[in-house]
Amino acid sequence: MTDLFSATAPVSGPVRVTATGTDTASVPAPADAGGTRGWQPPAGIAPRGTLLLLPGRGEHPLVYERFGRRLSADGYVVHALDTTPDDNAEEILERAADAAGPEPVGPVVLVGSDTGALQALHTAVAAGPRLPVGGVVVAGAAPATEVAEPRPGPAVGTGPAVGTGPAVGTGARTGADSSTAWDDELAARTACPAHRKRLTEDEGFVRGRLTAPVPARLLADARPDVPVLVLHGGTDPVTPPERARELAARLPRATLGVVREGRHDVLNDASHRTTAAVLVLWLERLRADPELTPILTVEQGAAL
Q1: How far, in Å, CA of 146 to CA of 85, rounded?
Q2: Which carries the bigger pLDDT value, residue 303 or residue 28?
Q3: 131 pLDDT more than 70
Q4: Residue 250: which residues within 8 A CB-CB, separation 6 or more?
Q5: pTM over 0.90
Q6: Is 134 left (phi over 0), alpha (psi -120 to 50) or beta?
Q7: Stretch 233-250: mean pLDDT, rounded?
Q8: Dmax of the chain from CA atoms?
Q9: Is the pLDDT of residue 156 over 80?
Q10: 148 CB-side CA count, 13 A
């Protein structure tokens, strides 16, 4: 019998989930990227929890519009915060509490991508009674130690492979050099055609930040005593998957999901539907039982 998210990973080893999928839908670029953004469940659907999302390097809240719409459709209130990698836990707590409101629907879950993932862990440790954090989602965590540039990775479409041109974020470029650097960054971030198009057209997105140094305070280990879902791309060229496995093994209550052939921006990658579905399954278990007791198990070979 194979359990679907059947156990919380002990410190000695995480649970592993694999996923794959594609998406080619068109997503328009935002006209205004600034400010915290929110998505509410459809009328008539009672909220099932509150997600507070922290963007990563170069990103802004509306980069996660597709994610917010999808999770809100499943009944979760989603707030993408207007934070930067330089914001400390106290600053993030203040913004998160303001966005969530005085009586947020639980569970309250911090979701972070890239440096936002590390910030989510540190913020959960510091939260205390100011914000009732019941869980954390760590997506494509930035390297826990400084990494100068992405490792070589597979090419996307007709663009060059990651690492075949100049390193991402190494300075201003013009002409062909600038185009190559952007192709490299896109290839490192995502294989999703829709998201690549959106980032390319997005005037609020800051190119070249993917290899900016991780703030020193985020390099310290943070181990919140709440359930943590670690989602990571299996071919992430920015943070090797081994780092995600090590992180999950250090956390006291972690579940690890590895997306087959996934890149760094795992919430906005080609398998974003499968990743969102896995996240909803985890959230539903968290709602029902903080110990993450299985709701449904799949038995191999059983008649349906």
Answers
A1: 14
A2: 303
A3: yes
A4: 11, 221, 223
A5: no
A6: alpha
A7: 96
A8: 61
A9: no
A10: 4
* Average pLDDT rounded to a whole number, residues 6-29: 41
Tokens of 75: 């009944």
First to last CA, the chain: 14
Distance CA 143, CA 243 (A): 7
Across the beta sheet with 254-259, the strand order is 16-19, 254-259, 228-233, 133-141, 108-114, 49-54, 76-80, 37-39
Q: Note whether 101 and 124 are within 8 A (CB).
A: no
For residue 296, the surrounding DSSP H or E stretch is none
* Residue located via tokens 């130690």: 145
Place of tokens 């993030």: 92
Structure tokens at 209: 């930040």
Query: What pLDDT score does 166 carry?
Result: 31
Angle CA 76–142–125, to nearest 5: 60
Q: What is the mean pLDDT of the chain?
A: 83
What value does the mean pLDDT take over residues 114-130? 96
DSSP letters of 251-282?
STTEEEEEETT--S-GGGSTTHHHHHHHHHHH
Distance in angstroms (rounded) separating the CA atoms of residues 77 and 234: 29
206/166 Cα distance (integer angstroms):
18
Residues 50-57: what's their mean pLDDT?
Answer: 98
